[in-house]
Amino acid sequence: MRIAVIAGDGIGKDVTAEVVKVLRAAQAASGLPLDLIELPYGADHYLATGETIPPEGYARLRDEFDAIFVGALGDPRVPDNRHARDILLGIRFELDLYVNYRPVRLLDERLCPLKDRTPRDVNLVVFRENTEGVYVNVGGRFKAGTEDEIAIQEEINTFKGVHRIIRHAFEHAKAHGLARVCMADKSNAMAQGHALWQRVFKEVQAGYPDIEATHLYIDALALQLVRDPGQFQVIVTNNLFGDIITDLGAALQGGLGMAAAANLHPGRTSMFEPVHGSAPPLAGKNVANPIGAVLSSALLLETVGRTDEAALVERAVQRAVEANTLTPDVGGTHGTREVGDFLVRQIRGA
Ligand code: NAD
Ligand code: IPM
Ligand code: MN
């Protein structure tokens, strides 16, 4: 089993160091082989060499590794974010990782910013379309920098892209015995592109008569997520809306430091990363919360079939929450490394 590890920038490096410790502990517990191969891509590498990711990098990641772990990318020294686009979005696009799977699971009620909400009320998954929408970067700027500037950023919606993410959401619901799937779009205003979402959602839901299919405009969904998150089990939406509502979902779990994500193409090499970014002001200070990253590595283990190790890691995280061995962003007093050490001890002692 070969895992590519790209720590990236800022707190990506801090949290990835803990992920590596946790994965090695899980590996020691199972005795199964696990090679972690660290790759240097990130702002430092880009600024030193001019290379974001080499041209053959995507094919190598796809063909030579079983999975990819990414910490976070984004650095103030690269204001146009070029390296992050090539590395993070590049991996999503070039490996055709069309499912961005972001579970929203509250581990303890004290972490939720809403009143009187328990883990039972905040337990849903978001499927974010991950290969098209506004992220394709189709468009251009005309008369840039003048008062006549025209800036165009197109949103691309294809039948194939919309169909495969909606179908994936229903298949997930079916496989996990879930009763409801909610699709969110903005078809009241975006009457061309999102008419396709409406059409495909109706076509796909017909194949799942036992699953209740509902629709909300994305603005209304944002309100409902705060008002009553318990009504949702599976949400499916486009790339941009999924980005936004999964930060909201992270807040429901205690903050960005708690939220995990998987970028999947079922059956192929997939990529795992926390929902949060590189948080430059926190970098290198031993304060970043490693739990979102660690839970993302549990998704990795589960996806590659190492379910026992995934369960060990998840149980260790649950114990850290119960013991309040957590970083300050979620009410703890511990450092990034101390949380990682606690997780390792739990896995060793399990
Ligand atoms: P961010 O997620 O880095 O930070 C947002 C807020 O959450 C900050 O207050 C930060 O301190 C806090 N936070 C985030 N993760 C945390 C953690 N693990 N522990 C404790 N606190 C945490 O988002 P931003 O500030 O909008 O972006 C910073 C950079 O990261 C930008 O360059 C952005 O493009 C990039 N980014 C990258 C990814 C990714 O690599 N997947 C995701 C989001 C943002
Ligand atoms: C995320 C991030 C990225 C996105 C950025 C860094 C391009 O916010 O993974 O949620 O918008 O997808
Ligand atoms: Mn985001």
Give me a quick take on this structure:
This protein has helices spanning 11-30, 43-49, 57-64, 82-94, 159-175, 193-205, 218-227, 239-253, 291-303, 307-322, 336-349; strands at 2-8, 35-39, 67-72, 99-105, 123-129, 139-142, 150-153, 180-185, 212-217, 234-237, 260-264, 270-274. With 350 residues, it is an alpha/beta fold. Helix 6 links the parallel strand 8 and strand 9.
Protein architecture, described:
It is a single chain. It contains eleven helices and twelve strands. By secondary structure, it is an alpha/beta fold. The protein has two domains: 1-103 and 260-350, Isopropylmalate Dehydrogenase, CATH 3.40.718; 123-252, 3-Layer(aba) Sandwich (Isopropylmalate Dehydrogenase), CATH 3.40.718. It has a ten-stranded mixed β-sheet with strand order 2-1-3-12-11-4-5-10-8-9, with helices on both faces. Strands 6-7 form a two-stranded antiparallel ribbon. Helix 1 links the parallel strand 1 and strand 2. The protein is globular, with a radius of gyration of 20 Å. The chain starts with a strand and ends with a helix. The model has no long low-confidence stretch (mean pLDDT 98). Residues 243, 247 line the site of manganese (II) ion (MN). Residues 74, 84, 88-89, 243, 275, 277 line the site of 3-isopropylmalic acid (IPM).
List the defining traits of the structure above.
single chain, 350 residues, alpha/beta, Isopropylmalate Dehydrogenase, ten-stranded mixed beta sheet, two-stranded antiparallel sheet, 19% strand, globular, binds nicotinamide-adenine-dinucleotide, binds 3-isopropylmalic acid, binds manganese (II) ion
